[in-house]
Protein 1
Amino acid sequence: MSVEANPTPAARASDQLICHCRQVTYETVRSAVRGAGVASLAEVQRETTACTRCFGCRFEVEGVLRDELGDRYVPATVVTRDPAADDGGTLRTRLRARVRGVRERVNTVPPQKMYMPVLQGFGGHDVSTRLVLFNLHDERTESGHAVSLRADLTRLDGRRQDVWSTTIAPKATTKLEVGDMAHEGSLPDGIGLVKLVLDAKSVGSLRPYFHLSSPGGVTSTHEKRGPRRPHVVAKRGYHWIFPVAPKPRPDEAWFFLINTQTAPIEGRRLVFRDENGAEKSVEVPQLELDQGACIPLHEHFASMRDGTGSGSVRLTPSVHVAGWIIRRDVEVDLWRVQHL
Amino acid sequence: MARSASLDAGRWLPTYGWWPHPERFQASVMISPYHSALESDGDARFATVVRGYAGSGTPVWEHDMGEQAMGEERVLTLSDLDVPPPPPEGAVVEVHTVRLDREPSTGVAAIGMWIDAVSPDGGGYIIPTQPIRGAQKVIARDDVQVVPGIIATDEVDTQLLLLNVIGESVEVRLVASSAEGLTQDSKPFTLTPYSAWHGSLRRTVPRVRRLLESSDGIGSLAIYSNHRLLPHFGFSRDGGPVGSLDHTAPIFAN
């Protein structure tokens, strides 16, 4: 999936954070590009430590590079942790980062990322998304602790639109209405995703679910975690599938997937195979880390819409994704969502 | 009726789901080899038996779906079976799929399949069947699971479904919690062996609407039981159809 240049990086306040993990400002990155001749994402990582933890600011950093360098900027095909920035890098790197404005010591533990789809007026429908985050407290072990996290609201192309941070006390439930984060036009076609970023040690007690609400009802399921080591391409022994049973009523169906690994997803297809062995397929767009796609299966496989089809839709060749099945009963405007 | 593949025989363990009353949902069991093998595993072969339980460990019906080669998709719509319907709250369906070409790579394992259900009024759910043991993730506690994001308002109610898939009665208690962590308990109740319990949060936990009033009707729920259950939850608006039925969150061992 191609990414447009961020239209307004230069308009960002100089003290505004571009990298929330490393507390690096826009100005620090701009200064590195202008003063130190930095011309690539990897060099920004090396010089500033920005974009070396969760990679959530990758497209914003690229926006600054594109804005400053114009045609001289060549986008990276894969974002990865720069070896020199890992573990804080060399003494020289750490000192240089401190001089250039990094506010706190580098956190060397990779964060845990959790992903959820966002439908907020998707396709013109009256549908909204609410995140519900429960911090479980195990009274037997008294292991409860407050969990601090950041929620990035992004477009499907990975461009971040808003950032929300909170701390959830043990036993507490926090909700976040995505409508309070998204502003007019921030999510093209009313669709995007939320990425939670938190310390791996906090994950054990956090249970994030989400609701999709429409006039017809409410549907819910949970987030999908990203891999602990997103740069390692995990082998999968089976396919993600979307099972399809015969339906007495017409409905619409989408396969929502997010790339949670640093390697791009490319050359994949969704293949609908029915009980008679007949197959049809649709191409999955190329997805880089943190980019998503919502593929309308009912537009490609007519028998899914009219309810006559039965079988499964598989993602092939097999690859790790965060994925959900989404269906909508057309007559009563009721959505159904289920994680894969 | 004898079990052709008991829980104690073989290393592929069965999985479970809800067998709803056909007047509420048309439920189909989806058997897809792609859910547990790659399309390149051309030699993979499967066999599946589907059974219904209603109150005891002896199945009230059994449907042998036979052998299935890689690439063969099968769908079994439960209402098409010539079997007596379950009680109004439904019962338990067991989906026991085994791979014939190999044993599990380590210990025991379960091959989950999917249930796709729709109701005449537009509701429905789609959910994988679950094992009671043999899951890949290690579960730290069998006695509690949680539902993050219950809703109890004038318009929306949380619908709970508890499946007991063991041969003993299970004592259950529900504890709803507000956004701030204040709690309200239900009265304890009992699930008989191999049965389903289906109920409304508002009717089961007294004063839950008042408990959640300060957080727009949103909170969480803990389900305590003396043996492990397979709980699910969904929502209905204005008494309308349930729009999903997801499983609850166990406490995994870290």
Protein 2
Amino acid sequence: MKTYNKPLPTIQPWSEEFWKGTKQEKLLIQECKQCGSKIFYPRKNCPECWSPDLTWRQASGRAKVFSYSVTHAGVEEHFYEDIPFVLALVDLEEGVRMMTNIIGCKPEDVSIGMDLEVVFDHVTNDIALPKWRPVSS
Amino acid sequence: MSKGNLAIIGVGEVPTGRYPERSHWDILYDICIQAVKDAGIDKKDIEGVITVAPQAQPRLTSEISFGKIPEELGFTGCKDVCICNAGGASTTNCLRLAEQWINSGLAKIVLIPHVTVQSTIPLQEVISFFATAGIDTQWEYPFGATFNGMLGMVAQRYMYETGTTAEEMAATVVALRKWAALDPNSMFYGKPVTIDDVLNSKMISTPLRSKECNVLADGGGAMIVTSRDLARKITDTPVFKLGHGGRYVGACHILRQDYFMEEGWRLASEEALAEAGLTKEDIDIFEFYVAYPFNQLVALEAVGITKRGQAGKFVLEGHTSPGGKCPCSTIGDAAGRGHTGSGVSMANYIECARQLMGKAGKRQVTGCEYILASAAGGSGMNTLMTVWGNKIP
């Protein structure tokens, strides 16, 4: 595999499951067993009720574009090869929002409200980043 | 009468821009000496120094944190020293802390300085610093998030929801640069731009073009503050802090309920005005420090100057520009002044003081009595509003 020079996520003990999940092409959302809150990003304790009793539920992998920005300049050198790339906020069917990249289409074809499906970008042997592409593609 | 007990009695400032030959300590000496002279006090009268934490300058931060300023400047009457870091909201919190030191009797007169030199930091290092300052290293940074990208998304959504046009967005830059063109301490002094200049500038993070983003700069400023009573004895032009309001909005954009910070600005300004015993109609200048030009529109709408979606037209018509009926950001906010990290809010408060002292030169708003000033930190973690006046209502 080609050397990956871009920043990798700084993983915490309570987010390890999430990244194990993406490695297996599963998008996992943390859920509180006590109050039922859906939690993203993952926490040590539920931000609503502080319960430490948290579990994981697989997301449908469907989302809509909340907003996006096509990046043309002003990034660190290791992102140059990706320019222009789409930085986006996507709203998952489960009601949580993620920051991500939209791939698999021309940047100019991205629009707010567009339907997306998750795709896993295996950037290293250990890490897969959840990215999104238009449902039709 | 408002509850606060703080007044600015003197300010000092060096021009903002790229001046690699000017060291941190050059600037610190100059601004502190200027501010003490401007206040008409003796250096031994400084009993406390509360410094705005500089960003991306760890050696300097360390020197300041561990007490170097009073020693270098010979503040022999100094009783305590500390540094405050809340990003762009640092100065506002330095003012709060100074008020506490003054009210508790720890210090009668406090110096609040800020210095930033970014031109000597390698560009990639600066980009890296800001790529992880106020941006989450697990959930945002791996996707190539930058301040421009994050705010590009806010701008995109704002245009989508309000129908604001690219021309109206660009008009915010034109208005700010008109003010900056009149400010000898601005990096864009004498350099106004047109809407075409903005729209023809290089695309950075859609919909934001280079002239709609900030240019990093070096700079520094200082304020001398004291109690209201002592301020009246020392100077004929005290500038009183009349009100303060604030809201925490959130660190990560993915979790921000108040995505445009609109509710935060509204509540903070209502609180600040209520404490001052004023309404928005009493305000002569809105000194918005909202970092990105298009955020001027959100601020105007949040404070209630225009209805939602109408601010773009309002700015395009020139109402916030020099000579307009609603002067906003009279040093041109970060886009006009140059972005000095945590220092833009310092420059903004110094401008409040200048306007209320009647010392704002060609930017002077005639008969200015009350100002509403904003500040925020990180990628928009909070909304802080303060009210200032040259009299107490």
Protein 3
Amino acid sequence: MESIRAYFGSKYRLVGVKLFKEIPEGYPTPAKPGKFCEFVRRAALGETILMRAEDEECHQSLIALGFQEPMFIDIQPRIQPAETKAVLIAPVEEIPDPDVVLMIATPRQVMEAAALLHGIEAKFAGEIAVCGEVIAEPLKSGKANVTFLCGGARMFADYKDSEVILGAPLEVFKELETKVKALEKSCGALCGCKTSDLPPRVIQVFSELGFERGIDYFFGRVDSQNVRIYLNKDINGKISYVTIHFPVKGEVEVTPPFQARKRGAWTDLYATFKDGEGFDISSGKGLKELIEELAAKVKKK
Amino acid sequence: METLDLRGEKCPDTFVYTKIKAEEIGYSGGGKLKVIVDYPPAVESIPRSLAQEGKGYKVLEVKQVAERTYEIYIEIPAFED
């Protein structure tokens, strides 16, 4: 799950939440009562907390998390029947098999996650939020949900106005992780680091190879083919990948190491390589040969 | 019976205003209070929070009077100064 955090550039850890029908041994309980939404935020900063009913100050959360049944009206979303005795809240890597995973995120990060998951149907009302909208609701539906939090969470749990929470069953986050890892390999969409952010030495390398500098790629012609070159960072922020892209009008043969995407009348033929595997980005050694070798493999149908 | 109209208010303000009003009534000899809310979670949290106060508040009835509008009837004992 660390790759998700790195991909989205989140300063928070993903939080795992697991519900128990018996109080488990060996987990730290809070020194004083608080609110579930507050414990989630603390877990996102690295803390592990086992919350029992007596540790929870918020009555709505006790109902939403299934510690208690409502007495007067049926408020939703909630876990029913109410059989919960404890809730473990911790960085996701520290909970075996969590029921729900939470990501404190900005709207932009949720947008990116939604795009990767092919859409999120969010259901929120600004009430019973962290405990209900992103715990009980995803558990009931089996799908991701987004909460914009509630008054209590905003007032007591120190969330910023710019923060919302994406919550989903573990399986959904595993799917997200798979997609993020695939993107790391393919460098995602055909886009790269802004060339203005690149070290001058790297820019010089591509200039010496005869490539012009675009906003986020270098472009030129090799063997009568248009070529674009994108540089991408790994999850540690180091420029480690080179994606070589041939935009070709019409149909082309797609053979390894190429992948292809259709774009109207065009086919984007591209392949990604890791720095050090036959070439060196900082010196340019081996790059020219690699690009020429690929250009020779571009075959129109 | 006094009425506290909290329509438009959300938790935790719904409880805070109820508590202030209930104490005012309690220190004035006790009586009954009708609280009107249109924030459903407050229907559950106000009675539970009042019970936690340990001042002998008693919720007599909760009535739904319209979609998302509820009346909570509370009996408040007389407090000693």
